[in-house]
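so the lab meeting is tmrw and i was supposed to have these ready like two days ago... anyway. pasting both below. for each one the top line is the aa sequence and the line under it is the structure tokens. i havent really looked at them closely yet so no promises
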Amino acid sequence: PGGLTVKRSEFQIAVDGEFGELGRTLVRDVVLDGFGMTAADCISAGVPPREVWAALCRAMDVPDSRIHGVGLLEPKG
């Protein structure tokens, strides 16, 4: 399906860009709704990074206008 595509490396760039130094802590500590795991655990379990990124953005109330992440291309519409 169309929409956001994020690789693991792009996921980390987006986290760093959106959350700065706090990003790595959020990935490690925030349990994501719908997964019952942290973002780090989701990535390790093979959940597609784009789904993890979207869930982390929802958990942290990131505006929809920034969900594609810093340093990532906006999805084509």
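ok protien two:
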Amino acid sequence: DGASDGALLVRLTAPPLDDAANRQLIDLLATVPSGPKRNVEITGGQRQRRKTVRVTGIGKARIEPAIAEALQRSGT
């Protein structure tokens, strides 16, 4: 976990079957103080290891620390 080349790296425990990993990622990002799950959208890479995610309702300057905090809380 961490940041690399401007991307945030997140390791998930859910298998990449039946969208379980995508759901786990959305659930994790929805715990960021941005509001409900509908504020989190996977915009690219739904079937790939690398994903592009859009989180609305939180400013760019606050998103990385908020995600880091969510990762610590989840133990992911």
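from a quick look at the 2nd one: The first helix runs from residue 20 to 30. The mean pLDDT is 77. will dig more after coffe
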